[in-house]
Design brief:
alpha/beta; 12 helices
Length: 422
């Protein structure tokens, strides 16, 4: 397996050259020239084809607030690298992942990508998990002229920074994740649909983006928002927020959540015997441990997803089979989005014919702006800001299994309303 967890150290290399003339980079940004004379024509004089691995630098939150989904992203990246290598590698070369733990810290993630690019001279970089970490790390990648494909920065602010090198490897941005559910609720007959909504969201751009996208659409459609709470990422005691929601008697609860916060909030609501007609939580229900964490009381819980393991896309069928064989269980959304990131970068590398720092990176960026890529989450294309041009599915726990319920042409089961008691 070509995946390693590293401390901050420099990868020695004999193939180094300055990038200042190539793209106006800092003179300290030296590269490991990974191109074998493909379409970019960037091989240095005297350099022929190489069998050196293509090294991909990654920083992930393997500890701290985002460690649970961060580890899922790690599993997806590692699966991608293993399967690519089993199939012959990229440009005929093996892939090696160099992964650092940013500890869920924005300051640390900046240091990590600085070290990976300028010191360790990785050939490519993949993005971290969470908008909080994607924005600062994307700035570093932009400074060094690196292609930056990321699996989990979906908040609107990501695409408002003016990044020209960033691409989000999922079907839709955070504010649009619940579009199909909003349409469903607002299309219900007035006497049957929920009338009041309680919202609780982590103070996090992605979590708030998903929750507020749904909140605002429902409010515009005439539903009353009776609770609207924001809590810090390190919150562990959710009893005060749960009490407010319970006291409101809201027909519907929306959680703008990551993982552990959703588990803690749901458990607190269960303890108060609060029973909503609809309950939607972002991200957490896609985690394999979610059901056991809330006492297997998942029935009727909704969430958006950019991925389903049952999708018939050719690469997804292969991915699910091989991932399940590797781990004993199918991949979740975090794993799939990470795998998609690898697919997107690999498509550009194979099309352009290079994988190295320098002018090659801009060729990879330009190719992605002009092409569609087939992935495990379906075909992806992007606008000039790196925003994907698709929509998320809506899934729900039905008869103990998480299944797609919206839109109608993708449904695996009918949406259950009202939600059964938990």
């Amino acid at each position: 397996m070509s995946t390693r967890l590293y401390p901050r150290t420099t990868r020695p290399t004999a193939r180094r050259r300055a990038l200042a003339a190539a793209a106006g980079f800092a003179a300290t940004a030296l590269v490991a020239a990974g191109c074998s004379g493909g379409a970019s024509g960037e091989s240095g004089e005297g350099e022929g084809e190489t069998d050196d691995p293509i090294v991909v630098g990654i920083s992930l939150p393997l500890t701290g607030d985002f460690s649970e989904p961060g580890k899922g992203v790690q599993r997806g990246y590692e699966a991608w690298a293993q399967f690519v290598n089993e199939d012959g590698g990229l440009l005929g070369r093996q892939v090696e992942l160099k992964i650092l733990d940013d500890q869920s810290s924005a300051d640390r993630v900046v240091q990590d990508y600085e070290a990976l690019i300028a010191q360790d001279e990785v050939d490519l970089v993949f993005g971290p998990f969470s908008t909080r970490l994607v924005v600062p790390s994307a700035r570093v990648a932009e400074e060094y002229g690196m292609l930056f494909v990321e699996p989990a920065g979906a908040a609107s602010e990501v695409f408002e920074q003016g990044f020209g090198n960033l691409f989000y490897a999922a079907p839709a941005v955070a504010g649009d994740h619940y579009d199909y559910l909003a349409e469903y609720v607002l299309d219900m007959p007035e006497g049957e649909r929920p009338e009041t909504v309680a919202v609780a969201s982590m103070d996090d751009p992605f979590a708030q983006g998903t929750a507020y996208g749904l909140r605002d659409k429902l409010a515009d459609g005439g539903l009353e928002i009776v609770v609207d709470e924001v809590y810090p990422p390190n919150t562990t005691d959710f009893s005060p927020i749960a009490a407010k929601i319970d006291d409101s008697g809201a027909d519907m609860v929306i959680g703008g959540t990551q993982y552990q916060d959703a588990v803690n909030l749901i458990v607190a609501l269960q303890q108060l015997d609060y029973q909503p007609e609809l309950a939607a939580f972002s991200t957490a229900p896609t985690n394999p441990e979610f059901a056991s964490a809330i006492g297997d009381k998942t029935e009727g819980i909704l969430s958006p997803t950019g991925y389903t393991e049952t999708a018939s896309y050719e690469s997804n069928v292969d991915f699910v089979e091989r991932y399940t064989g590797l781990h004993g269980n199918p991949p979740g959304e975090d794993e799939a989005n990470a795998y998609t990131t690898g697919q997107v970068v690999a498509a550009a590398v194979e099309a352009v014919g290079c994988a190295e720092q320098g002018e090659c990176q801009q060729e990879l960026v330009s190719w992605l702006h002009s092409n569609e890529v087939d992935t495990v989450v379906g075909p992806l294309s992007w606008d000039e800001t790196g925003k994907p041009q698709g929509a998320h599915l809506i899934q729900q726990y039905v008869d103990g299994e998480i299944q797609i319920v919206l839109p109608q042409d993708a449904m695996e089961a009918e949406l259950v309303f009202p939600k059964p008691e938990w």
